[in-house]
UniProtKB/TrEMBL annotation:
Localization, UniProt: Membrane
Source taxonomy: Eukaryota, Metazoa, Chordata, Craniata, Vertebrata
Its membrane topology: Multi-pass membrane protein
Taxonomic source organism: Orthonyx spaldingii
A molecular function GO annotation: G protein-coupled receptor activity
Chain's gene name: Grm7_0
Gene Ontology cellular-component terms listed: membrane
Name of the featured protein: GRM7 protein
Superkingdom to which the source organism belongs: Eukaryota
Amino acid sequence: PHAIRLEGDLTLGGLFPVHARGPAGVPCGPVKKEKGIHRLEAMLYALDRVNGDPRVLPNLTLGARILDTCSRDTYALEQALSFVRSLLPPEGGEGRCPDGSAPRRPPPERLVGVIGASASSVSIMVANVLRLF
């Protein structure tokens, strides 16, 4: 539920603590303006600058999938796994449409890197998972 997606030829992932840790049983708490929103805005600004200058990446645009870690290491790890799921083929085989044709699926996301997370402990956990893929 806490995500931003921008289309592009290549996708950069982002993991930022946009929300603080929530109370027991709730993953996310209040918005973190300085340490969360500012980092998110910095990534969006950098993408805007790169995509706006045709000399930097000619004929390519950078997209993004930015996820909220809610300042919680286990939640960040779950979010990182969603990056991995986007690279895997859909479950349940191909299936068929009512008219008998094969369904049209969007091409797999071309995730080329992940920026974040904010805390070293979270970054280490996420890097260990993403390194496998």
